[in-house]
Write the structure tokens for this entry.
Amino acid sequence: MRKQSWTKRDPIKNYFPLPNEIYDLGLSRGAISVYSFLLRREDRRTYQCLLSYREIGDDVGMCVTTVRKYVSELEERSLIRTEHTSVITRDGRKRNGRLLYQILPIQMSINQYYERQFQEADLALERQKVTKRLAALERKEGANNADANA
């Protein structure tokens, strides 16, 4: 059997890391696509990239409004932060520029996700307690009504 020689991958040039935890946060497929594209385009020293919705949409195959929706989903989950930029045209007018995306540490989003889950569990527990109290109160009122009718 012949020995296979595979080319070694340079971790900086040939691919980018996507955190495994991204799949545990309950993100939509489109949001994961946009996030992975932003990670691909980020400057690894500053964790920033400067892109427009149109540039992202052209590269991931989505329309501008869909990209905007997924970017806001990523912002809500504390995975990214956006900042508006402006440019000065040759004739001196100020125009809106592209968005500056700041890729935030994944741990912030994970902590926020777990905190949200704890809050939902607390609400469910509180609802369950209220339901039990109402059922007990209805039984008690039903028993009092039966005693009054007898």
